[in-house]
Amino acid sequence: MSLTVTNRPDTYTAAYLPVEYVLTSDLSPNSISGEFNTFATLRGTSFSGNDVLVNTSTQPLPLVVGDYVLMDNAGVYNGVHRVSSIVSGTEGVNVQEFYIDTPVSTEEITVPFLNDVIKLAVDIRKHYNNYSAVLDVYIGGSFTVRLRKKRDVNNEFIFDLSSIIQEYLGSDLLALDTSTTSTSIDLSKEVYIQYAEEYDTISNSLPTLTIQDFVDDSANTFTVVNSTVPYVWMTDFSISSVNYDLSDYYKVDALFSAGSAYNWLTTSTDIRIGSNDSYQLSFINGTETYNGSPNLIAVNLDLVLNKYDSSNTLLGTDIIVIDTDTTANLEGVYNVPVGPSNLSTYLTSDVVKYEVRVRIDGFILANYKTFVIENDCTKIQRRFEWINKLGGLDAFTFTGKEVRDIDIEKETFKRAIRASRSIPERSVTTFGVQTKDVYTVNSGIVSKVEKEWLINLLESPEVYLIVDGYRLPVQVNSTFGFEKLGEDSYNVTMEYELAFEKIIQRN
Question: What is the mean pLDDT of the segment spanning 374-384?
């Protein structure tokens, strides 16, 4: 096989970064020396313009009439030429002498050489005309699309699958009141490819563009997550981190040492939450090494729940089963319900703080996420959920002042009033009304870290307002402000509207 995959996407990769396959080929028209290199002599039967005769008797080529050859060190004959006839040798196997449909050039003739030799020591090889690399992309186990690429200036075929895969990804929203973990349906997709060469093959001296046998690359299946990893995270004009992949969120070492635990798919720190609120965290269960093995081998995934009272005393630890599989196949993206309403079975009234962490076969897997329970029924409660950059779900409750405005646009027309009019007859008629409610909410006092985190809410393409146990889709407007209240205290102002049209009757 002449195509070779030289680069594949990571085992887990972000959909909004390049998802690249790079392939190379050792066949023409690749400039790398191919499998059919030889030296040839070019001759002309006369110098009257007849086609060039090529002699490869010492290194025959597997040619048929209609094939193409690529010549170097051939002076004015450098380039691609078509085989017009076979003179000697076995066609398709070891052709020793053949004509190309290129007239003899007088520029190469200075003296009448013996046997009409016009060029010696020509580098020649079979040329695969219309050569392309072909990729069949499989998403979620199903064929999705066929792609073709010509080689670039570096003799590579580069396929970026990111824009294709993005169309098949979305968010995984657990039911607000659920206590059941689920594996990813839309947040991530498994992807693999099959690849092949495509070039002209000759039948009855005529070319037919033909795809050669596909190579199945499903042994190198990878998972794409609906996430973007900014190359640079900045906070107040300082670089907080630099990322090029998702390695911080799934790679751990073989022994699961203290420093190897990876992260939930969120950039939040400690989370303030109401006693009746839900919350959803996601994590990637996958690693390149596990107990010295190149693939993840796991039987049990558990949620570790640590509970604390108001004096920060540990009240107890619960181990909650996330998933178990005796076939040792637990790789993937998991969505875990971890809010007080989801964990009500385990949280008593004296719990004011709790931590959640994932462990695998008894080894700690994910960093702790801390939740602080707050209850103040006197404050306005406007709770929002949004899809964060990593593809996970974040949530926050705005507790400050809220203002409602109504934006109304009316279409009207006027008509003359008759002399014999009745009192209720109208001259101005409204025939169309467009209206929407626009809300401005304030966060209440938040820290600098929380303020920076809430920028993700503004930037999210998918935001929900939680009302009476329902998720209402909303559109966050560009009006988004920060008011500094103290050294480490801010108020965040946000304007939003419902993300569906308010229907008004027509007259």
Answer: 80
pLDDT of residue 187: 94
Q: Is the peptide bond before 29 cis (omega within 30 degrees of 0)?
A: yes
Give how many domains the chain has, as a whole number: 4
What is the β-pairing status of strands 215-216 and 117-127? unpaired
Strands ordered across the beta sheet of 428-446: 393-398, 382-387, 463-467, 470-486, 489-498, 428-446, 402-414
Provide the 3-class DSSP secondary structure of residue 247: helix
Nearest to 285 by CA among 193, 181, 160: 181
**Which pLDDT value is given to residue 51?**
85
Query: For 299-332, how does the pLDDT look when each residue is reduced to its tens digit (9 = 90+)?
Result: 788 999 999 999 999 999 999 999 887 665 677 8
In a domain, 113, yes or no: yes
Whether 464 maps to a domain, the answer reads yes
Alpha helix stretches (DSSP H) within 71-175: 162-166
Question: Do 299 and 359 sit in the same domain of this protein?
Answer: yes
Residues forming a β-bridge with 215: 195
Distance between CA atoms of residues 24 and 34, nearest Å: 12
What does pLDDT average to over the chain?
84
Chain segment 401-424, per-residue pLDDT in tens? 888 888 777 776 677 776 666 666
Query: 141 and 268: one domain?
Result: no
Q: Please give the helix or strand (H or E) that residue 452 lies within, else none.
A: helix 448-459
The CATH number of the domain where 105 resides is what?
2.40.10
Q: Are 314 and 410 found together in one domain?
A: no
What does each C-alpha distance from 464 to 167, 173, 387, 406, 477 come to in angstroms?
A: 21, 11, 9, 20, 13
- 265 lies in the same domain as 360: yes
What is the largest distance, in Å, between two alpha-carbon atoms of the chain? 117
Where residue 134 falls among pLDDT bands split at 50, 70, 90?
very high
Residue 384 resides in a domain? no
The burial of 461, by beta-carbon neighbours within 10 Å (0-12 exposed, 13-18 middle, 19 or more buried), is given as exposed
Q: Are residues 440 and 466 in the same domain?
A: yes
Residue 423 and residue 447 in one domain: yes
> pLDDT tens-digit profile of 325-367?
766 567 789 999 999 999 999 999 999 999 999 887 777 767 8
The pair phi, psi for residue 374, each rounded to 5°, is -125, 140
Say if residue 370 is in the same domain as residue 254: yes
Residues spanned by the domain of 257: 246-376
